[in-house]
Amino acid sequence: QESTVPGELGDPAAITAEVAEPGAVTIVVPTFNESANVRRLLHQITESVPSRLPCEVLFVDDSTDDTPHVIEEAAKDCPFPVAVLHREEPVGGLGGAVVEGMAVAGSEWIVVMDGDCQHPPSLVPDLVATGERAGAGLVVASRYLTGGSRAGLAGSYRVAVSRVATWLTKSLFPRRLHGISDPMSGFFAIRRSAVTAEVLKPLGYKILLELAVRSRPRQVSEVPFVFQERFAGESKSSAREGLRFLRHLVGLRTASPLARMAVFGLIGVSGFVPNLLALWALTHAGMHYVPAEILANQLGVVWNFLLIEHLLFRDRRLFRRWWDRLGRFALLANADLLLRIPLIALLVGRSGMDALSATALALVMTFVLRFVGTEALVYLP
Ligand code: GDD
Ligand code: MN
């Protein structure tokens, strides 16, 4: 059998036409500078997959080294189609690459796996077989089932980070991740029909999480696996990737307006910290508490603005320049303060409410107004 290697930005349709039969698998491998690993990976796949399941392999590559070239050379020895989709613009990082790969995959099943040999290809046919047997849309290779392990997760630091991240994520999405013991896994099989590409907003490493939460495949199965040591080179994960993961979590969790409002409120409460610190510093420096509080409050406003810009409305910063947004945001925040006192007076005076209830009600009212105002006046055209 001949292997087709379209090469850089080759015609992916050429390979998708070749293996489109049901039950076949497209293995999507995201790669970033993995030239020392891809030959071995293709060799491992050759040994364990085609004799059990027709397959094609699609690398989605964001490398700055010669990974695409090495793949093309190694592909000549493969008894199945291999293609490289090299991206000039690495939008969305690892997750973005996987989604682009899934869009051109030609088989009924898509298996996503890493390019550094941490995921054993011998499991690929088992993942698909499990999905067929259970009628599942998604089959996760899990390190946390009996028989699985995270042997290859180097160092107790990474194990701890991984454990905390898994716990946090599972608590944030108890329903969506029900039955998924390892939502952080980068190794899974998904039916093409279960991928709802229109609703996906991949951001960084956790593409399985993205799919489980936004595509909501109707039935999920799991298979244990042993996470191997990386063959060559180093993990591409970094502190920056960790921040991206937090942003991804917030984005997933705040898809509904109510959840967005809750996070907006939490951010608002966190603004008391810089506010009080500044107030303390300014009054200690001898400033009168009234101007000190006005200044300190502005610091809280800026703090809130930064968090909202970078966590909550990150993908909505499209319609105004940043200083325009900051100006409007600050205006709303100060209007909120100015509005509250007359509102309380009105509630007490007109409807005879007691001062405490009136204050609480006014707080809630101005908060909701501020949230709605921020969405409408700062982040919409
Ligand atoms: N195309 C593309 N673009 N590929 C990328 C990018 C990118 O920006 N960043 C990383 N990759 C590729 C790597 O080249 C590798 O093939 C694969 O994605 C995984 O990257 P690693 O850097 O090896 O990740 P890891 O070993 O730290 O993390 C893996 O295991 C975690 C579980 O502990 C990943 O599978 C994670 O998703 C998983 O959570
Ligand atoms: Mn790895």
UniProtKB/TrEMBL annotation:
What parts of the sequence cross the membrane?
262-282, 288-308, 329-349, 355-380
Tell me the ranges covered by the Glycosyltransferase 2-like domain, including all copies: 26-195
Q: Keywords for this entry?
A: Glycosyltransferase, Membrane, Transferase, Transmembrane, Transmembrane helix
Query: What main location does UniProt list?
Result: membrane
Q: Which residues form the GtrA/DPMS transmembrane domain?
A: 264-378
Q: How does it sit in the membrane?
A: Multi-pass membrane protein
Query: Which Gene3D superfamilies does the UniProt record give?
Result: Spore Coat Polysaccharide Biosynthesis Protein SpsA, Chain A (3.90.550.10)
Q: Where in the cell is it found?
A: Membrane
- Say which family it is in: Belongs to the glycosyltransferase 2 family.
Q: What is this protein called?
A: Glycosyltransferase family 2 protein
Q: Which organism is it from?
A: Streptomyces broussonetiae
